[in-house]
Specification:
It is a single chain. The chain contains eight helices and 13 strands. Strand 10 and strand 11 form a beta hairpin. The relative contact order is 0.14. The structure holds 2-acetamido-2-deoxy-beta-D-glucopyranose (NAG) (4 copies). The site of one 2-acetamido-2-deoxy-beta-D-glucopyranose has 3 residues, from loops. Keywords: Disulfide bond, Signal.
Length: 309
């Protein structure tokens, strides 16, 4: 018996680390000051997850097991409620099902965490995408895997800073607080922003001033369709912590992506540090142009980075 147990233990390790048969566990946490209703959408041809949508109160977490080879996306819905007829809708990220659980859809704009587990070379591929716009700060932190396993996400609050042409307001007609920020593709439906038509290749579709607004604030997040090289990350046999409104006060290492003591690939920072040092210039600059965008951006980045040191 004493010999069998270590043998079994090794076999299980082999299963997990060599063949990676276990898929992954996503631990989704809500660190926002409000309830978030995660939405989960499985890619075509992959097994579904045990849930497609549920509420997460402020401070709450929930773990979800994803099967081998799972691919799909996870996002946060905000300001959801049931109307008098029992129809469930959300102000941002609504999935159109009329229910708490989603049924295939997902309304834009929303910050998306995208995964392909057990892909090429046995690696998980993951990213946080602003290609379809932004609604919540979000971070993906790989746990216990091997390889690069870089933390990615968009940890900055961008709704207040959103350029007015992309802004989504809480109330119809543009009133109320800003609750999300559309992509230029969604806002203008033009081929050069959507990387479609004559712009459907990496050579012809370039970053725009709008995609750069997202990229400068969140250098590791996907900002437009051909932004792969700095935005897609890999890790083998990992689990993933996905946090809405992440708080980095106690997670310095996660902020730089160097938390696992592994050599890092050359990659952009999680937060644009130059914004701290230029924060005050931005503020006066923006004020003189009458634009709140750079000012708010600089302030929110500064506030976050103040926790690092
Ligand atoms: C996962 O995908 C690989 C490669 O496509 C395939 O060989 C394998 O059978 C799949 N495993 C499961 C459990 O679906
Ligand atoms: C880590 O990332 C670098 C650069 O992206 C890549 O060349 C390398 O193969 C990656 N290492 C692993 C183990 O995936
Ligand atoms: C940081 O922001 C500045 C100002 O918006 C920009 O010029 C720079 O390219 C950004 N850096 C990164 C790594 O995105
Ligand atoms: C977030 O940061 C604050 C201030 O440092 C700290 O008191 C709080 O415990 C943190 N919350 C989480 C969930 O890490």
């Amino acid at each position: 018996m004493a010999r069998v147990v270590p043998y079994l233990f090794l076999s299980v390790l082999q299963l997990v680390f060599v063949s990676g048969v276990l898929g992954a566990t996503f631990t989704i946490s809500n660190n926002c000051e409000h309830t978030v209703w995660p939405g989960l959408l499985s890619g075509a041809g992959t097994s579904p997850l045990p849930t497609t949508g549920f509420p997460l109160q402020k401070g709450e977490s929930r773990s979800i097991s994803a099967p081998t080879n799972w691919s799909g996306r996870i996002w946060g819905r905000t300001q959801c409620a049931e109307d008098s007829t029992g129809k469930f809708t959300c102000v941002t990220g609504d999935c159109g099902s009329g229910k708490m659980e989603c049924a295939g859809g997902g309304a834009l704009p929303a910050t998306l965490a995208e995964f392909t587990l057990d892909g090429s070379g046995g690696l998980d591929f993951y990213d946080v995408s602003l290609v379809d716009g932004y609604n919540l700060p979000m971070v993906v932190v790989p746990q216990g895997g091997s390889g690069n396993c870089t933390t990615t996400g968009c940890v900055v609050e961008l709704n207040g800073a959103c350029p007015s042409e992309l802004r989504v307001a809480a109330a119809a007609g543009g009133g109320g607080e800003s609750v999300a920020c559309r992509s230029a593709c969604e806002a203008f439906n033009a081929p050069e922003y959507c990387c479609s038509g004559a712009y459907a290749t990496p050579d012809t579709c370039k970053p725009s001033a709008y995609s750069e607004f997202f990229k400068h604030a969140c250098p590791r997040a996907y900002s437009y369709a051909y932004d792969d090289s700095t935005s897609t990350f890999t890790c083998a046999a990992a689990d993933y912590a996905i946090t809405f409104c992440p708080n980095f006060s106690s997670k310095k290492s996660a902020a730089t992506g160097e938390g696992n003591g592994r050599p890092e690939a050359v990659q952009p920072p999680l937060v644009n540090a130059s914004m701290i040092f230029t924060g005050m210039e931005y503020a006066s600059d923006a004020a003189s142009r009458g634009g709140a965008y750079s000012r708010l951006l600089a302030i929110s980045a500064w506030a976050l980075l103040a926790y690092y040191s």
